[in-house]
Amino acid sequence: MRQDAFCASVARHLSEFEEASGHRVDVQLIDNDEYFTNELAPYLDGEDPADVRADRMTEASSGFNDVVCGLLLSSGRILLVHRNASRVWAPNCWDAPGGHIEQGESDRDALARELLEELGIVVASDAARLVARLTGVQFDARVFVVDSWSGEPQNQAPEEHDDLAWFEEEQVFGLVLADPDLFDIIVEALHDAPGPDA
């Protein structure tokens, strides 16, 4: 019953958003009781999303996670990767490509290495702009916007991601993201980006 109430609440909020913004939002409902119990129910119980996220990171890792991720922007769209079902933390979710900072690496060097490894693209350090930082007890994630690179992004890490896709702003609202805080960061990045004709 909680799941039905949650879906009704989501539908009401999406309707209000569509009316206020003039945007239509397409949502893919997930018929998965385990997903609901593990991923969504804690928010219904009034838990802080940051605490839930920190708990998951703690369960998934015994150490501190120092990470970078890149939001690639092109023609008013953003590139996201879909995490495999086998991933310990945030399986079956869309996420920004990136990964752990290795010892001795700068944030930008780590980002360039991760995007080369995961997407097969080359990013110059001056093409990445730090836009946000997500922190918790067990993690510190630096989020960069990347608006220029060489090469065509392809899934070079199928053991981590089973898909990648470009999304416009209205499509992002229908996605399940690995970190709910990414919604606001993505929307702001898309608003700040030059339009397709710029």
Question: What is the CATH C level class of the largest domain, in words?
Answer: Alpha Beta
The main sheet comes to: 7 strands, mixed
Label the overall shape: globular
Task: Give me the secondary-structure category.
Answer: alpha+beta
Which descriptors apply to this entry?
198 residues, alpha+beta, Nucleoside Triphosphate Pyrophosphohydrolase, 2 domains, seven-stranded mixed sheet, 6 helices, 36% helix
Please describe what this structure looks like.
By secondary structure, the chain is α+β, with helices and mostly antiparallel strands. It folds into 2 domains: 1-47; 60-192, Nucleoside Triphosphate Pyrophosphohydrolase, CATH 3.90.79. The protein contains 6 helices and 7 strands. The protein has helices spanning 2-21, 33-44, 49-60, 107-119, 169-172, 182-192, and strands spanning 65-74, 77-83, 94-95, 98-100, 128-135, 139-146, 161-167. Strands 1, 2, 3, 4, 5, 6 and 7 form a 7-stranded mixed sheet that branches. A hairpin with a 2-residue loop joins strand 1 and strand 2 (77-83). The longest helix has 20 residues, at 2-21. It is globular, with a radius of gyration of 17 Å. The model is unreliable at 28-44 and 52-61 (pLDDT under 50).
Summarize the structure.
By secondary structure, the protein is an alpha+beta fold. The protein is built from six helices and seven strands; from the N terminus they run H-H-H-E-E-E-E-H-E-E-E-H-H.
Give the arrangement of secondary structure elements.
Blueprint: H1 2-21, H2 33-44, H3 49-60, E1 65-74, E2 77-83, E3 94-95, E4 98-100, H4 107-119, E5 128-135, E6 139-146, E7 161-167, H5 169-172, H6 182-192
Parallel strand pairs: 1-6
Antiparallel strand pairs: 1-2, 1-4, 2-3, 2-7, 5-6
